């Protein structure tokens, strides 16, 4: 990942980015953090880059021309089509979905404003994304850019070690992390929860999910309102099962998977709730009952649904029928099993974006 940070204070970016995990990532060649000093593109003999606001009022406004030239200097390095992110309290508030989506880019241009802001005309011309790091006011965009770089870089391959891995994180489910413990087993008469010493991984995983939910309910009920319990299910071969499982894991830390081929489920069916998400894989090679509609016993209550067809051009009429059975089809992914498997990550991000917009 290559970041181009356009700023009046390049030293601030270099100092922070050179430290700790980001510093290690730069030295290891996993990321590059370039700075472009907007002042170098001043069109004024005094090197000024700001001027008084039309219409009057307090403070100064950054001029369009130096900002535009600085962006174009970065674009000469990255090529056209690079996303230009302006850090501003008026942007979309950064969250883990946005972070992961940005991590899919090869290059990012980050524009840091100062004073009262930047002349609107260059923003209209050049900025593709308006992003805020939170509902408070900073003295400039640099700390915003650094926060973004830090969070995005965690998803760049090789930036985190195995122990630090960003793969399975509860925030992606809009849930808070469960509590952590290390030695000693008893500290000032406080014991480590017994289940964590049991070695029973299913029970531990269940306990962690419960704690995540409880904690989110107590501390961030606003997140819980937007949280979904993710279930992957598939009809057909094991390859389809593997695909659905990896997609489910990429969408949710606590996702679970169901082999819907099992006779019992086929006969009894299953009802999904409105706070659930079903990711349904339909393998055309599935052994289907007489009428060829293995999904007919699945019911939803406005349940969002993602359909996965691991064979292009052979979509069964499932989407329409599932809508009638109470599901809301969010997206349909189809294509070869191989293509679908390679792009699991992109699909997972798209699914999460869809869920946020529900
Ligand atoms: N998340 N700031 C941008 C300049 C500015 C002033 C007025 C637009 C209008 C911020 C944030 C943030 C402070 C960066 C003001 N831009 N950036 N700067 N919150 O507060 O990202």
If you had to describe this structure to a student in words, what would you say it looks like?
The protein has 358 residues and is an alpha/beta fold. It folds into three domains: 2-163, Alpha/beta knot (3-Layer(aba) Sandwich), CATH 3.40.1280; 168-227, Orthogonal Bundle (Trp Operon Repressor, Chain A); 228-356, Rossmann fold (3-Layer(aba) Sandwich). It is built from 13 helices and 16 strands. The strands form five sheets. It has a five-stranded parallel sheet, with helices on both faces. Helix 4 (96-102) links the parallel strand 5 (83-93) and strand 6. Helix 3 runs parallel beside helix 5 (120-126), helix 4 packs antiparallel against helix 13 and helix 9 (238-251) packs across helix 13 (344-356). The mean pLDDT is 94. The structure holds ligand 4GX. Ligand 4GX is lined by residues 87-89, 113, 116-117, 132-134, 136-138, 140-141, 144.
In short:
With 358 residues, the protein is an alpha/beta fold.
Class inferred from helices and paired strands:
alpha/beta
**Which radius of gyration do the C-alpha atoms yield?**
25 Å
Rounded average pLDDT: 94
Helix coverage percent of residues?
25-40%
Question: What hetero molecules are in the model?
Answer: ligand 4GX
The CATH class of the largest domain, by name, is: Alpha Beta
Uncertain parts: none
CATH architecture of the largest domain: 3-Layer(aba) Sandwich
- Number of strand elements: 16
Quaternary assembly: single chain
Largest sheet: 5 strands, parallel
Report how far the terminal alpha carbons are from each other.
31 Å
Q: How many H/I helices?
A: 13
Strand order of the largest sheet: 2-1-6-5-7
Count of the domains: 3
Strand content range = 15-25%
CATH homologous superfamily placement of the largest domain: SPOUT methyltransferase, trefoil knot domain
- Overall geometry comes to globular
**Sequence of secondary-structure elements:** EHHEEEHEHEHEHEEHHEHEHEEEEHEHH
């Amino acid at each position: 990942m290559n970041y181009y940070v356009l700023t009046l204070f390049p030293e601030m970016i270099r100092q922070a980015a050179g430290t700790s995990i980001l510093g290690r990532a730069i030295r290891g060649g996993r990321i590059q953090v370039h700075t472009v000093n907007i002042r170098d593109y001043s069109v004024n003999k005094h090197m000024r880059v700001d001027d008084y606001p039309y219409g009057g009022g307090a403070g100064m406004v950054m001029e369009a021309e130096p900002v535009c030239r600085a962006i174009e200097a970065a674009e000469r390095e990255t090529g056209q089509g690079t996303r230009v992110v302006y850090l501003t309290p008026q942007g979309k508030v950064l969250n883990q979905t946005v972070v992961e989506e940005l991590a899919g880019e090869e290059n990012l241009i980050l524009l840091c404003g100062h004073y009262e802001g930047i002349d609107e005309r260059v923003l209209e011309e050049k900025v593709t994304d308006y992003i805020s790091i939170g509902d408070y006011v900073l003295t400039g965009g640099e700390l915003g850019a650094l926060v973004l770089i830090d969070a995005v870089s965690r998803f760049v391959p090789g930036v985190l070690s195995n122990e630090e891995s960003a793969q399975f994180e509860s925030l992606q489910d809009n849930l808070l992390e469960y509590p952590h413990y290390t030695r000693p087993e008893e500290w000032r008469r406080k014991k480590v929860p017994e289940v964590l010493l049991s070695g029973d991984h299913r029970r531990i995983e269940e306990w962690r999910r419960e704690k995540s939910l409880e904690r989110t309910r107590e501390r961030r009920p606003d997140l819980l309102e937007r949280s979904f319990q993710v279930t992957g299910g598939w009809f057909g071969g094991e390859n389809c099962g593997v695909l659905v499982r990896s997609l489910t894991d990429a969408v949710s830390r606590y996702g679970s998977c169901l082999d819907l081929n099992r006779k019992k489920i086929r006969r009894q069916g299953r009802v999904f709730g409105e706070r659930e998400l079903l990711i349904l894989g339909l393998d055309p090679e599935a052994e289907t009952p007489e009428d060829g509609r293995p999904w007919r016993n699945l019911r939803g209550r406005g349940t969002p649904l993602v359909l996965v067809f691991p064979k292009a051009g052979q979509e069964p009429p499932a989407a329409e029928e599932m809508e009638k059975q109470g599901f809301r089809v969010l997206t349909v992914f189809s294509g070869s099993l191989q293509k679908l498997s390679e792009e699991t990550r992109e699909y997972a991000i798209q699914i999460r974006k869809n869920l946020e917009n529900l």
